[in-house]
Design goal:
Layout (H helix, E strand, L loop, with lengths): L5 H13 L7 H12 L4 H11 L3 H10 L11 E6 L2 H5 L2 H12 L12 E6 L11 E3 L2 E3 L4 H16 L1
Parallel strand pairs: 1-2
Antiparallel strand pairs: 1-3, 3-4
The structure holds FE2/S2 (inorganic) cluster.
Length: 161
């Protein structure tokens, strides 16, 4: 599968050539690869480095720092479950356990139908709605088992539509 369309490659190439610090574009370029390819393989890191004229290690440092950049294949939707303090004090651990049981997967795994990958994450900035999780760019909370059932059903329907 193509990592990034040629027009987007050209966009990053010319933008990098026009600025003093092309490293500023690393996250945008990684997100573009991930958006197009689903995740960022080694070849994606190499490509971003070449487009920006920097070393692959400089790209890899960023790619492995942020947990929203996926260096392994993931499902169509990634569930980030908050495991930070506010959520933890409001039954976050039980919610995380419920999600694992409901989906039949452990943290880091993907459901057999390829729809969901489950990952723990640090504070989502939704402490007032704890316990919280994020799917794609949407944050959900406060979560209960019933609310989780509704959300998963809704997202499954969107994915299969
Ligand atoms: S601690 Fe969970 S959203 Fe902040």
């Amino acid at each position: 599968m193509e990592l990034l369309p040629e027009n987007q490659q050209e966009f990053f190439r010319s933008k990098a050539a026009a600025i003093a610090h092309p490293r500023e574009l690393v996250i945008d370029a990684l997100r573009a690869v991930q958006s197009h390819h689903g995740w960022v393989p080694d070849e994606g890191v190499t490509l971003v480095a070449a487009l920006l004229g920097i070393l692959p290690i400089e790209v890899e440092e960023v790619a492995t720092f942020y947990d929203k950049i996926f260096r392994r294949p993931v499902g169509k939707r990634v569930i980030h479950v908050c495991d930070s303090i506010c959520c933890w004090t409001r039954e976050g651990e039980a919610i995380f356990t419920y999600l694992q049981e409901k989906l039949g997967i452990a943290p880091g795994e993907t459901t057999t139908d390829g729809v969901f990958t489950l990952l723990p994450t640090c504070c989502l900035g939704a402490c007032g709605d704890a316990p919280a999780m994020m799917i794609g760019l949407t944050t959900y909370g406060p979560l209960t088992p019933q609310r989780i059932d509704e959300i998963l059903a809704q997202v499954r329907a969107e994915v299969s539509a």
